[in-house]
Design brief:
Radius of gyration: 46 Å
Helix content: 55-70%
Mean pLDDT: 76
Low-confidence stretches: none
Number of strands: 7
Strand order of the largest sheet: 1-3-2-7
Number of helices: 4
Largest sheet: 4 strands, mixed
Distance between the termini: 103 Å
Amino acid sequence: METIKNNSNSKIKALLALSAIFAALVFLTSIVLHIDPLNMANSIVDFATHHYFLMGFISLITMALCVKLYNSMDERIDRNYNNKNMIGYTRLKKRKKTIQSIREQFFLKAQKLKSHYVEKDQIKGLQFSNNEVLSDKEELILREQELQRAMKLGNTLKQKVKIFFKDQKSNKYTETTVWHANSNHVVLKGGITIPVNRIYKVEI
């Protein structure tokens, strides 16, 4: 019971305080602007009547900001969607490249298995096409590196290597030392040459 009474007294005190503050504001406004309370009420009504345009303008600005924010959200969603698509495209591209690499490795192994051995001296009677046997850029670089390494081993240690190549008929390989290698031909022991573009594997 005592608690209810205290709450009621607090509400009354708060209401009295607000009334006092409002009366003080009216009093101060009357002194500063030299307007009595009745004219003050008329001014407030007049302000509300003549400032509907201001409220409409503020509403228009608010609407424009909302539309701009909405469009920016659409652009952000589109950008995120495009980024996700790009990530998906990159992953798909990597997956395709991996599959292609596996296929090419399988192809090279299959070619190696189907290759038959020929003596170095038999290469003189073979005919070669001008077409490139490798299609991947990394494999071309790897072939060049392997040929350069084979040349160094042949000139310094006289070490033999296996060279897998393709003439106009079939896949072949030979085992010999490499004396010289450039971008066009590989020179074997005895001055025998093989076109570089027909070599698909060098095994050291």
